[in-house]
Design goal:
The complex is a heterodimer of chains A (804) and B (123).
Chain A lengths: L1 H18 L10 H5 L19 E2 L8 E6 L4 E4 L3 H27 L4 H4 L4 H9 L2 H15 L1 H20 L7 H6 L8 H15 L4 H11 L1 H7 L50 E7 L10 E9 L1 E2 L4 E6 L4 E6 L8 E4 L2 E7 L5 E5 L9 E4 L2 E4 L1 E9 L2 E10 L5 E3 L12 E5 L7 H10 L3 H8 L7 E7 L4 E6 L14 E2 L18 E3 L5 E4 L22 H11 L5 H8 L5 H14 L7 H11 L11 H21 L10 H10 L17 H22 L5 H5 L1 E5 L9 E4 L15 E3 L2 E5 L5 E5 L17 H5 L4 E2 L11 E7 L1
Parallel strand pairs in A: 1-29, 3-7, 6-23, 11-20
Antiparallel strand pairs in A: 2-3, 2-29, 4-5, 4-22, 5-25, 5-26, 7-8, 8-9, 9-10, 10-18, 11-17, 12-13, 14-15, 16-17, 18-19, 19-21, 23-24, 26-27, 27-28
Chain B lengths: L1 H16 L5 H15 L3 H27 L3 H8 L5 H30 L10
Helix pairs in contact in B: 1-2, 1-3, 2-5, 3-5, 4-5
Classes of the chains: A alpha+beta (804), B mainly alpha (123).
Cofactor (chain A): Ca(2+)
Protein name (chain A): Penicillin acylase family protein
Family (chain A): Belongs to the peptidase S45 family.
């Protein structure tokens, strides 16, 4: 009896211990998660409560001092570069380990390993786009051409790995505990992968949709609806710029035979609308203090932990401060004692598709000119949590990976398209940032940029000595006009890119007469630039608002520049609303609701401030109207694209009776006013529903800006309904899920004054008080002090740590 | 008396051993303690359970108060359990169950080692 009862109770105790240590479905093991000494409770502790005066870090040549200011921004003081980047890796991992690993897992197509089969499709796509392949080539490039940079990237990686090896269970980021996995070793390859991830986030193409539109509309109508340049072009590089170089000739083939397929393929995801940025610099002659002022605000998905992590990095040779990308070395957007720089996305079609004709089913050879060229096979083994690995075979041609084939996103057996993208070419973006961090003048800035390939950026520049500059840098293919707008025949050698635009012929300007340089993702140049420039996603409103303001402003101060970053003026509404109201006529004039909304719209000052109702009404009415105009075009089965809003408004304004407004499915001939009325009717329905369910329709309440955790299911780790204004196409480009992911304003002069903020916090830990403490500051358009610090400065210091 | 002693000793064990060892090592420790102190079956069950359960409860409350962190509430919402208070309770209950069965096992193990007289009357 004694034995029976002992073994029975022992069995219960052991089973209990086993049950609480095993994951059940998606639920993580309960006891390790709840154990107050190791589980999530430990993540309640903020970084200042865990501060250590000294930490052992191997492979340092001298001690490194780290001073944290009151916002947990680390200021690293090292004696040389190797120590500096080793410490940067260590400190970044301390605060952002889970995020940096998760982002590189996403870039490598390995999310299924963490979350299971739900991410398999996403992983297949990432791998088929060849991001990991690009990073491998990048690493090879460093090994062969730039051992100096490689040594620094490896030092960073060593810093991260030393942190991982010191990490005990209690300090493990809470996401690992919930998702029940452990961090793996970091590597130089992962740092490079992160930069490819940025390319993927920022670069798209619409070749598929344009190919279909060409077939549906014909070339003439396509050119009318999608002109290469807008009527009012206010480009990045001032239109007056004289191009003083001899361009490389580009020959257009005599006859162009595009593949004539109707492409019923599910398109790849594109950068979401709202992904963009502003940057500018004003010369001393336009500022109150006579110093140049530089401003930058990249607009990206609003996520927690934030994409950005602020730091100061100092050696005896240089001291740089600004926003870093966890996982990459140095500062990405920032300033040092001599210069300041910032980035915005410079979209330009650097991604093209080629139709591949395979010799036979085996796909071992494809047609090119008069020969059959051999293909390469890359076997992608995708590990899937809780299931067998998925094996995907991706065929590589000299153009690039065959993304669409019989196994992926195509319902036709004969469709094969290869992706050619500058991301697949060995490159060294990391070196650009390392050199930029130390640059002292305009020449150094140009030298640094010469190493930069992708994603193409508008690099703004200002120096202490008074220079301002802008350069659009990336590796841009030489194309004949129209090349790469549509899918091309990969068997025809005439369809190849004919080389690349030399770096010195990329659009740039130094100290222009107008006293400022600026970019807001618009057309890079005007028509006089001698190379073909095309992209579908150019901005048409932020740029014009920005340049108008900069032209009229004088005696500019840092506060003026902050206010301009937070400017809510909706230029699109200012141009379109009077047209909409006039085309509406007396429609629904007997409805009291219609009267109320129209009154609010008419009295609106076009500022998308959080308490404005006019912005909500305009936003719904205009989008419903545009939707109605293009409904028949978008109803085509093959995926197509609608003309941009600028073009649509231009048609409404200047050609309201054009035949394109006619709806074929309805008897009679419709003109623009029909669609405006349809849009207004939809507005009435939508607002009645909203007022009934949600009540208040002031703008902030309607757009519901949300800063979302990187795992969207982790809703309680997100910050929903942030009260702030702005929107897409507005300088303060804060929409519901996108917006200013980092704001910086720097005045260069004998004393540098710097300010910055981002919607998040320095800690990646949702339990820390430094996780989201910047959000209210950011939402109010306020800033943190970002002045450079010296190690002696004890003001507003949180704590200090010595690595040795 | 032995039950109270076991409760106290278990609490001390959890406070000092748990930070450096996973929960299952603590369970073994409670079993050993319980076998050494040797209360009766109910005493072992309650002593181990209350010792570990109350300590886990106390530790989670202590962390919640000293850090003022929003994490318990965030975790509660994430796990569909409402607030952090529920999680504190669940932590206490899980700690109690793990400690209780360890304590009881310890007592029953000690029982195995006790020599039972074959004939109580003959001695």
């Amino acid at each position: 009896m004694k034995y029976v009862s002992f073994f029975l109770v022992l069995a219960i105790a052991v089973s209990l211990a086993v049950v609480v240590s095993l994951p059940i479905g998606q639920i993580p093991p309960l006891a390790p998660l709840l154990d107050p000494n190791h589980g999530f409770w430990q993540n309640s502790i903020s970084e200042d409560q865990l501060a250590e005066e000294e930490i052992d870090l191997e492979n340092l040549s001298a001690p490194v001092e780290i001073v944290y200011d009151k916002n947990l921004i680390p200021h690293i003081f090292a004696q040389n570069d190797l120590d500096l980047y080793r410490a940067q890796g260590y400190v970044t991992a301390q605060h952002r380990l889970w995020q940096m690993e998760f982002q590189t897992m996403a870039a490598a197509g390995r999310i299924s390993e963490i979350v299971g089969p739900v991410a398999l499709e996403l992983d297949r796509m990432t791998r088929r786009k060849g991001l990991a392949y690009g990073a491998e080539l990048g690493l090879k490039y460093l090994q062969e051409h730039d051992p100096e940079t490689l040594a620094l990237v490896e030092a960073y990686s060593d810093g991260v790995n030393q942190y991982i090896s010191q990490l005990d269970k209690a300090r493990l980021p809470v996401e690992y505990k919930i998702l029940n996995y452990r961090p793996e070793a970091w590597s130089a390859y992962k740092s490079l992968l992160l930069l490819k991830y940025m390319s993927d986030m920022l670069v798209g193409d619409r070749d598929l949709e344009f190919s279909n539109l060409r077939k549906i509309l014909g070339e003439a109508k396509l050119d009318k609806l999608f002109p290469d340049f807008p009527k009012e072009n206010d480009p990045v590089i001032e239109a007056e710029r004289i191009w003083d170089f001899t361009p490389i000739p580009v020959t257009k083939p005599d006859s162009l035979a595009y593949p004539n397929d109707e492409l019923v393929i599910e398109p790849l995801p594109q950068p979401t609308e709202g992904t963009g940025s502003n940057n500018w610099a004003v010369a001393g002659k336009k500022t109150k203090n006579g110093n140049p002022i530089l401003a930058n605000d990249p607009h990206l998905s609003l996520n927690l932990p934030s994409l950005w992590y602020s730091m100061q990095l100092t050696t005896p040779e240089h001291s740089v401060k600004g926003a870093t990308l966890p996982g990459a070395l140095g500062v990405i957007s920032g300033f040092n004692q001599d210069i300041a720089w910032g980035v915005t996305n410079a979209t330009k079609d650097t991604r093209d598709w080629y139709k591949i004709t395979f010799q036979d089913e085996s796909r071992k050879a494809y047609k090119y000119g008069n020969e059959w060229r051999p293909t390469d096979f890359r076997i992608e083994e995708i590990k899937v949590k809780g299931e067998d690995p998925f094996i995907d075979t991706v065929v590589y041609t000299h153009h690039g990976p065959v993304v669409y084939d019989r196994t992926f996103r195509s319902n036709r057996q004969d469709v094969n398209f290869a992706l050619k993208w500058t991301v697949h070419m060995g490159s060294n973006e990391q070196r650009t940032f390392l050199m930029m961090n130390k640059a002292k003048n305009h020449n150094d800035y140009n030298e640094a940029l010469n190493h930069y390939v992708a994603p193409a950026q508008n690099f703004v520049f200002a120096s202490r000595t008074g220079d301002i500059a802008m350069r659009i840098q990336g590796k841009f293919p030489l194309k004949w006009p129209g090349q790469g707008k549509f899918f091309m025949d990969g068997a025809d050698p005439l369809m190849e890119w004919q080389g690349y635009i030399p770096n010195e012929q990329n659009p740039s300007t130094l100290n222009p007469e107008r006293g400022f340089v600026s970019s807001a993702n618009q057309h890079p140049v005007d028509k006089s630039y001698p190379y073909y420039v095309f992209d579908n996603s150019y901005e048409h409103y932020r740029n014009r608002r920005l340049n108008r303001r900069l032209r009229e402003m004088e005696q500019i101060t840092v506060d003026d520049m902050k206010a301009l970053q937070f400017d809510d003026y909706n230029l699109q509404a200012a141009e379109a609303l009077p047209i909409l109201i006039s085309l509406l006529g007396t429609h629904k004039s007997d409805s009291p609701e219609a009267e109320k909304y129209l009154k609010e719209l008419k009295s609106w000052d076009f500022f998308a401030d959080p308490n404005q109702k006019g912005q909500t009404l305009y936003s719904v009415w205009s989008s419903e109207t545009f939707e109605s105009i293009w409904r028949e075009l978008l109803a085509n089965e093959p995926p197509v694209l609608r003309p941009n809003t600028y073009q649509t408004i231009d048609l409404l304004t200047n050609s309201p009776t054009d035949s394109l407004f006619d709806v074929k499915g309805i008897e009679g001939i419709e003109t623009a006013d029909y669609h405006v009325r349809v849009g207004f009717d939809s507005l009435l329905v939508a607002m009645a529903k909203w007022e009934n369910e949600e009540g208040d329709y002031s703008w902030a309440n309607y757009k519901k800006t949300t800063i979302q955790h990187l795992v969207p299911n982790f809703k309680s780790f997100s910050a929903p309904n942030v009260y702030t204004g702005g929107g897409s196409g507005i300088l303060n480009a804060t929409g519901s899920r996108h917006g200013a992911s980092w704001r910086m304003v720097v005045e260069m002069g004998s004393e540098i004054k710097a300010f910055g903020v981002y919607p998040g916090g320095q800690s990646g830990n949702p339990g820390s008080k430094f996780y989201d403490n910047f959000i209210p500051i950011w939402a109010n358009g306020e800033y943190l002090n970002f002045d450079l610090r010296t190690p002696e400065n004890q003001e507003e210091m949180l704590f200090k740590t010595i690595l040795k | 008396m032995r039950f109270i002693f076991l409760t106290l000793m278990t609490a001390i064990l959890v406070v000092f051993l748990n930070p450096v060892a996973p929960f299952w090592v603590v369970m073994i420790g409670i079993g050993v303690l319980s076998a050494l102190i040797y209360p009766n079956g109910i005493g072992g069950f309650l002593g181990g359970g209350l010792g570990m359960g109350l300590t886990w409860l106390g530790q989670s409350i202590y962390l919640g108060i000293t850090t003022a962190s929003p994490l318990p509430d965030r975790m509660g919402e994430l796990m569909g359990l409402g607030t952090g208070m529920t999680l504190i309770a669940i932590t206490g209950v899980v700690g109690f169950l793990l400690g209780a069965f360890s304590g009881w096992t310890g007592v029953l193990f000690r029982n195995l080692l006790q020599k039972t007289p074959k004939n109580v009357y003959r001695g």
